[in-house]
Amino acid sequence: MDIDKLQNKAVDIRKELLTMIYEAGGGHVGGSLSSVDILVALHYGVMRLDPRNPKWEQRDRFILSKGHSVEGYYAILCDIGFFSKDELKTYRKFDSKLIGHPSNKVPGVEASTGALGHGLSIGIGMALAGKMDAKDYKVYVLMGDGEQAEGSLWEAAMAAGNYKLDNLIGIIDRNGLQISGSTEDVMKLESLKDKWTSFGWHIQSLDGHDITGLIRAFQSIPVQKGKPHLIIANTIKGKGVPFMENDPAWHHKVPDSQQLNMALQALDAQYKEVR
């Protein structure tokens, strides 16, 4: 799939997740929008997956550690064939598998997440298993930047460096905001690069909305044998919808019908002509 098609796919996913949140009456808008390009790069351009065989042993593993931003993830799993559009429409409805945080009852979801700081530990277990079983799959863990204040995450970061898990890729969605404001006002995180480097990780910092750059970075891994890899993806919370961008109020706010229409119109203008 060429880059224009991938960028258009990201627009599709943003429109879908906004509609899901509006119809469900709940969800996490800002962080879902900021992570879409990362998810698109991975699921359409990098990872080895087989929706017809979700438990294929050689598949790459993905864990959404920032589990509250699940809407775009569900939309992508549906789009690539893990479950139907009819099931996607049950999001947050009574007795649906598609609850407000990832559930491993959903085809394609590797781990139930939502309690921040736990996804990396799960990923380490999967990466260790891959090494022990001599499998060549990779494990990708998408974390939030507010999540970096969780102590359990740093225990995991230390363990990954200790076990030289070069089949493990962490990604930080660095949008700079969390529900109560700026991450640096809530808990100073910088320098993230220095912190993660000290735990034995190889670090790349790049534009988290540059799908081409993301794919190239993912495909270059492992850069250094014996080192887990971290991508600090610099993003914009609410990306793609001007009145939602960089506004922490949209962390967990539901658009009304007028706001939804405005958002969808803004996104429609971002489609690229594909020849």
Automatic annotation (TrEMBL):
Record keywords: Metal-binding, Thiamine pyrophosphate, Transferase
Domain annotation Transketolase N-terminal: ranges: 13-251
GO molecular function: metal ion binding; transketolase activity
Cofactor(s) the protein requires to work: thiamine diphosphate
TM segment ranges: none
Entries under InterPro entries matching the protein: THDP-binding, Transketolase_CS, Transketolase_N
Keyword Metal-binding: yes
KW Zinc-finger (keyword) present: no
EC number of this enzyme: 2.2.1.1
PROSITE patterns according to UniProt: TRANSKETOLASE_1
EC category name: transferase
Alphabetical list of Pfam families matching this protein: Transketolase_N
Protein family membership: Belongs to the transketolase family.
Descriptive protein name: Transketolase subunit A
Species for this entry: Mahella australiensis (strain DSM 15567 / CIP 107919 / 50-1 BON)
